[in-house]
Amino acid sequence: MNLAPENTTLRAALDDAASIIESELDALLPLAEGEERRLVEAMRYSVLGGGKRMRGFLVIETARMFSVNITCAARVAASVEMLHAYSLVHDDLPAMDNDDLRRGKPSCHKAFDEATAILAGDALQTRAFEVLAEPDTHSDPEARCELVAALGAASGARGMAGGQMIDMVSEGQTLEPPMITRLQALKTGRLIQYSAEAGAILGRAPGPLRHLIAAYGRDLGAAFQIADDILDAEGSEATLGKTAGKDAAQGKATMVSVMGVQRARMHAGHLAQQAATYLDSFGEKADLLRALAAFTVARRS
User: Which Pfam families match (predicted)?
Assistant: First the structure.
């Protein structure tokens, strides 16, 4: 598997998807009049103009594989980016990871204030589900219900929020690799898995194909988080756009902390290769998803 960080076809596809998602987010979050305008400004500040948009790209690309209209896919991609942005806003708060920098600019609670940041995260989360439930997202109510239920499962107590809880209570502890794998699968992996699976839900894909896409997303999410841990250990604030070295400073349990950088990098590469094998049934249609798996563990930011 070629793990070269530069793939011009993938880069172009990522850029195109990011542009589509940015436009959709802008349209779905219009500025309000009255006192609530400040809240919407904080929401837009947190979700527009930055980020890899990998989760949104996964939605768009898997939806394309199942011949889904780009308008529907863009709405779901924007929804997952809202949900992701909400998690980052809350994650940066003093009561959580207490980080003043996000995507190369002040965190939401520093640019506005803590109370506004809490409300902005809340409102981004609820808007994400509202978008999924709207008829413009899919003509089939069953598909919309599946998207809502799947995102709720991925982001709740048995998903992202639960993973964040484990992460918080585990600070300063030495965890075994299986527990770290579970922590990261919940905190990061479930939302990435959902992003891949969402395109299959939109396309009303048969169960076996949907399961393959979900398995791809699961292992991609695991590889992505380990790559993030490595970047946190080796990267700089300038390249990451956020505070580097946080994990070690806060005593976070990561694969890097128990394996070391080199073994963790090998493990991430293995997971990326494993993720790609789930795409064999899709042939050339899945080439960009294969390239994304390679890029995920080779990236430098």
Answer: polyprenyl_synt
